[in-house]
Every structure is written in C-alpha cells, then in structure tokens.
Amino acid sequence: MFSKLLCGPNFPLKPAQLTRQVHCSAPRPALPPLLFTLAKPLARIVAAVVGRGARVWWKKLPQDKRLLFKEAAKRHRKKFVVAGTSLLGGLAYAYESHIQECGVTGRRRFVALTPDQTKKISRVEFQNLLEDLKPDILPDRHPIYERVVKVSNRILQGNRDIRQIYDKNWTVTVVDQPVKNAFVLPSGNIFVFKGMLDLCENDDQLGIILGHEMAHTVLGHVAEKLTMASFVQVVLLVPMAVLWAILPNDGVALVANWFIDQMIQLIVDLPFSRDMEMEADEVGLVMAAKACFDVREAPALWGLMELMSEDPMETDRDLEFVSTHPCHGTRQESLSSQLASALTIRFDCGCARLDQRRDPQIRLEEFKRFVKKQQSMVLVEQEK
Fold first, then answer.
1. Cα dist from 209 to 23, 205, 231, 248, whole Å
2. pTM score, two decimals?
3. What are the pLDDT digits (tens) for 337-362?
4. Which of 105, 250, 275, 303 is most deeply packed, by most CB within 10 A?
C-alpha cells in the first residue's frame, strides 16, 4: 500500500519554512466551494419544498383530474422508466468520472472537489479560526511554539519525497487552551492546543500526533469527505422529494426525514469517517518513521489515552459504530500490528537505533499496574 512512501533523497536540506509556500498550482476555474459545504441543507430544503408543494397541489386537485393524471402516468410509464434509468446512468457516470488515485497510497477514491476549491474552503476556515482563537494564540517566539515548529519541520523534511508536501503553505498556530486537540487544514495550517502538548510527554509522541493530522492533509481527506457527503445528498434528492410528496403531513415527513438522516449517518458517514482515521493512522505512522521519531510511542500513546479517558465513546468498542473515530483500543491494536513495518522503514531511512531499555510499552505496562492498584485502593475504601 505504501510503495510510494519512500525515504527522502539523501541531500542537505535547509529547515522547511512554514510560512513560505513552496509551490502553487496554476489557478483553474471552479464551482463555488460553498456549494459543497451547503450541499446537505440545500438538497433537503429543495426536496422538502418540491415534495410538499406536490402533495399540497395533489390534495387540491379535483377527483376527475386526479384520474386523468393517473391514466396519463400509466400510459407514459415507459418514459418514466427511461428517465429514471438515465438519471441513474448520469449519477454513475458522474461518480466514475471523478475517481482518482491517491498519490500516496494508490487507493482509488471519489473526489469531485478541485485543489483550488479545497484551498478556498481552507482559507476561509483558517481566517475564521484565527479570528475566533486570537486571544489565546501564543506568539511565534514562545518556547512551545518553537517546539511545534521543530517537530513539524522534522516531519516535512523526512517526507520531502511526497509531492503533496510541496503544494501547501505550511503554518503553525499554537492555542493556549487546555483542549486535547490538534488538526491540520487542507492548506497546511497546523493548529495545536496546549492541552495536547501537555499530554505529549516528549517530541516522539507529538510527532505521532502531528504525523496523523498531517496525513489527513496529504491524503486529501477533507475534499474526499465533502465530495462523498455532497454526492449522497444529490442521490437522495429525488427519493426525499417523493417521500415528502407521498406522506400524509409535514409532521410525519419530518420524522421520516430525521430517521433517514440517522440511517445515512450510521451506514455511510460514520464508517467512512472511521476509515479515514485509520488510514491517517497508518500513513501518519510511516511519516513519523521516515522523520526518525520513535514510532513505538504510537500504540503506547493510544493505550495511555484509553487508560486516561472517561468517555465510553472513546473506550467501549460496542459503541464504536456511533462514533466518528475508532475507539482508542482499536487504534492501539492496529498500530501495534503495523509497528514492525514502521520500524523497518525507520531503519531503512538511516535513523539512529532505538534504546530497547526505553521502550514506551514498558512505561505503559507500569502505568497500567499503577491504575489497577489505585482502583483496588478505591474499592477497599468504598467497602469500609
């Protein structure tokens, strides 16, 4: 899967300038990106208005004219079949004509957004985030900021053989909030919250986290998610309009609309999101290995987060199907199975040998024993 993720060529490279864009693709005309972000509400509004209008019109129609329309529909049913088949064929063609091969993994996926459209969406989101978070953004001379820049540059340098690294304007923003979160916009804008930095005991753990988030960007996951969401809404447009037309009243139609939304989320959206997270874990681990981070920290970090989490959505595998992310245990197991391959990649890239006495798994096992001891003490106190 990762035949295209090779070690960068061995030549001197100055530290990447996170505020300088290395390469810009030529501008191309594109549909307004707002259409993709508003696809779902627009599609549902159109379906509701058209379907409800058809229902109201039909109820007001005299009985004799209703019979005429029914007879006409029977006479022209072949035309309706042809029209429906043509519509399905058009949707299938639109889907097939926008299948692309991921430049990093080779996976074929459906993407209708152009790079220009994705960049426009990212620029708007970037400015909005800067405005919203402005009071808590740390200055670029702060030691924490310099730590994030150092780790980010190390990942960029280690993966300079990946073309998708060069078509983005990489920036770093550190937010002084206790939120355990980090993300990277499709345009390369890295956001890290202090809560996440406090969680990461060393740069290797931070490299694992940033490798995962940067992998989302390199893989183009945002464009893929927006495309899929928009396509699903287009496919549902006619069925939802028919639903609004045939149901007896608006109340029943709203309930049916809500139920279908939940089913689409469970069957399509959430599994798709979890798959994206697992792919970013996999590619991010390889990116961290190529940057010579201690990739043994990856499964250990997720094991630590599972022990620390009090949210059942993050730890209970029975509830994973209603979450956008795999639970911590699932991610730990997946990364553990990929660890041998990542260590081989790290060795092939000429990285320094790892100290077996400082295996993160040893620390994790010690912490597990500590947590178990603390839980036992709490139970003893409760029994008293």
1. 25, 6, 31, 51
2. 0.83
3. 999 999 999 999 999 999 988 999 98
4. 303
